[in-house]
What we know:
By secondary structure, this protein is mainly alpha-helical.
Amino acid sequence: MQNLLDPAILFFVFGVLAGLLKSNLEIPPAISRFLSLYLLMALGLKGGFALARSGLNAEVATTLGCAVALAVIVPLLGYQIMRRFLNGYDAAAIAATYGSVSAVTFITTLQYLESRGLPYGGHMAAAMALMESPAIILAVLLANRLRQRTAVARTGVVHAGAGVLALGGAPAPESVPNPVSLGQLLHEAFTDGAQLLLLGAMLVGVLTGAEGEAMMAPFSVDLFKGMLAFFLLDMGLTAARQLAQLGRPSPLLLLYAVAGPLLHASLALGLALAFGIEPGNGALLMVLAASASYIAVPAALRYAIPEAWPALYLGLSLGVTFPFNLLLGIPLYVTLAWRLLA
């Protein structure tokens, strides 16, 4: 309940209600894009300044290694689960969405920790950056393998699959695109503007240290809470729209949208216990594993896996998982991390 009284969270709830009431309230796309870039830049700076204070150590290397492991395990596990009741393309798309991360969920968790005086490491911003791309690459590789397997038997119409038909979704396109080049995919993954901005801001923070932190405080600290609240208002409006587009999905998919994050967070907690990761970093690792992408991955999947149904993976991640994590998940993950890792 205390999390619900946070102004930023309340603005998200307000945005959802305004969207469900079909209000004409909206944030212009250009402003929404600016807000997301601001949050990433501020996050990168904060992480860089913290890294400049702490330096690189065994804790940093261990945590980053766990983050990379989760970035591979979560999408592969998600694909195996989803493949049981969805066609391969939709299963790969959902696996990528839940295998990647939500920067806004992560940033909201940082604000939650800071408001309670709970410490965490600046290198967790690097962990977030490392966890964004592997799921996309794995999903595209899975989709390419599906295309190759069905190329000979294809009759000219792509089979929509029982999962999509049961959900009332649109069938896949009739023409199947050529497999996406792995080299091109890797280039786009590692040169994505948002990710480059995050890493670049972190590098600036490391290089400038305490002096840079003092100079940038009005930008990266004083404005941060208000900008986050404004962005979460926009996310609330968008979440309401995605819920409307999702329609009435299978109860199994709705269950996965809630139970999946809990399972992924449990995997992260297990790694944190096994490797002795500190509570704050363990909590953030749980949040990263439990979050689902609704910006970077959907943008990539529309191009790389056009056979998948966007309303399905975007509706589940933004319409169900994001509100769940924001309202209930973050306090749960932080509480468990402090009770079991402290």
